[in-house]
Write a sequence for this structure.
């Protein structure tokens, strides 16, 4: 399957397909575990001039907005730079640098390519091209203002879902 066909599985307005993520620090987790956060997946390359401008912008934006629920995942698309040199770069970045991303997220027509997933796990943006500050604000601020979705209660041992224990539900049980 071509990269464009794989990326076509990710559709704006549809639930975000899950992906398996591995950071350069060796942490492994699923994209679905970030539900409740606004997630930016950025594909970049060291030889890409727009990427070299966008990556520091994304890092600075993340530093300012992480406490509001923003997560930025940066995935390099090439092997032209040695792992040691990439690790040096990543040591200066606050955003999460991905070593591997297994799933349907790929660069579209080129790099940079960005995907934005809202707190409810819906793809809200998917395009090739670099963000500037105005685009980040236009796309991300409204999403960061949205409330996180309520957690989905898990079925109890008997197979019946139980309401989450909040102060209101505990008061009703008394």
């Amino acid at each position: 399957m071509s990269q464009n066909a794989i990326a076509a599985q990710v559709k704006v307005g549809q639930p975000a397909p899950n992906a398996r993520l591995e950071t350069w620090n060796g942490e492994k987790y699923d994209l679905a575990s970030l539900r409740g956060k606004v997630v930016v997946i950025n594909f970049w390359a060291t030889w890409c001039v727009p990427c070299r401008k966008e990556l520091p912008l994304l890092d600075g934006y993340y530093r300012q907005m992480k406490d509001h629920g923003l997560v930025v995942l940066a995935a390099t698309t090439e092997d032209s730079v040695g792992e040691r040199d990439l690790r040096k770069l990543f040591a200066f970045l606050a955003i999460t640098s991905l070593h591997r991303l297994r799933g349907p997220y790929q660069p579209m027509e080129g790099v940079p390519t960005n995907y934005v997933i809202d707190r409810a796990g819906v793809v809200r943006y998917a395009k090739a091209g670099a963000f500037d500050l105005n685009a980040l604000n236009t796309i991300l601020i409204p999403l960061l203002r949205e409330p996180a979705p309520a957690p989905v209660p898990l079925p109890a041992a008997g197979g019946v879902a139980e309401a989450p224990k909040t102060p209101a539900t505990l008061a009703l049980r008394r």
In short: Confidence is low (pLDDT under 50) at residues 160-174. The radius of gyration is 18 Å.
